């Protein structure tokens, strides 16, 4: 446990600020009003804490506020409103005495998408280079090149190299294999495994994006092991029924007014899945 609690501005503090700002040209005061609408003032954390809710419930907003207040590392930027900094200044948090994480990091679905796109771009570049090396191998293998001076030494080495190796071996030795040869799901899991290290505090925003059900279960196991054996604490915004089953997770239902802590089996989204499969039970 690295962070114990996070407190949002209360109703009185919000009203005082918004009434002052109303005299300006702004029509929106986001994120003011997001959490007072469902009476959320304090989040109390466990080793794994989940913020559950439908789109627009504020779960990603809460995660971004916590990340900014804690000065968490992150790979991609996010859109801040004009009053984001004012709101953060009014938030408070309590860390666990004597416990300090090695790092605090925010990981969003945008981070994972960018990682996969970058890998794809790298692989495309490798594939184009491979075609060039194919042609180079054919040219060098069939050439009658003779060294006339030391300036020709590198070219001679390439010619001899091409004659002594198969095409595939020549290409592999020249540029290596593709940077990655995994599916999108495997690449996404690789991103999480590279970014999440021992003894860290990690905020994950909808990490299930890009993951099949099977991959979500693998991520669930990775998160559980990281929390249980490797000193990590997690705050996760999700509506994945798989991640909601994380052992010992404290789940806040942001769709409730007031916000309430619930078991995963009590959540509306999970009950919708349950009812759907119950209706089709005989087809299984």
Question: Sheet bearing the most strands, described?
Answer: 6 strands, mixed
Morphology = extended
**What is the C-level CATH assignment of the largest domain?**
Alpha Beta
If helices are DSSP runs of H or I spanning 4 or more residues, what is the number of helices? 9
H and E string:
EHEEHHEEHHHHEHEEEH
Distance between the termini: 42 Å
Radius of gyration: 26 Å
Bin the helical content: 40-55%
Instruction: Estimate the strand proportion.
Output: 5-15%
Strand order, main sheet: write it out: 5-6-7-3-8-9
CATH architectural grouping of the largest domain: 3-Layer(aba) Sandwich
Task: Name the structural class.
Answer: alpha/beta
Q: Give the number of domains.
A: 2
* CATH fold name of the largest domain: Rossmann fold
Average pLDDT, rounded to a whole number, is 83
| Tally of DSSP β-strands | 9
Contiguous uncertain segments of 5+ residues? 177-181
Can you give me a brief rundown of this structure?
The protein is of the alpha/beta class.
Topology (elements, then pairings):
Elements: E1 3-7, H1 11-21, E2 42-44, E3 48-52, H2 59-69, H3 84-90, E4 92-95, E5 104-108, H4 109-142, H5 153-164, H6 167-175, H7 184-195, E6 201-205, H8 213-229, E7 233-237, E8 250-253, E9 260-262, H9 268-279
Parallel strand pairs: 3-7, 3-8, 5-6, 6-7
Antiparallel strand pairs: 1-2, 1-4, 8-9
Helix pairs in contact: 2-3, 4-5, 4-6, 4-7, 7-8
Write structural notes for this entry.
There is one protein chain. With 284 residues, this protein is of the alpha/beta class. The protein folds into two domains: 3-111 and 183-283, 3-Layer(aba) Sandwich (Rossmann fold); 113-175, no CATH class. It has nine helices and nine strands. The strands form two sheets. A six-stranded mixed beta sheet has the order 5-6-7-3-8-9, sandwiched between helices. It has a three-stranded antiparallel beta sheet with strand order 2-1-4. β6 (201-205), α8 (213-229) and β7 form a beta-alpha-beta unit. The chain starts with a strand and ends in a 5-residue tail after the last helix. Mean pLDDT is 83; it is low at 177-181.
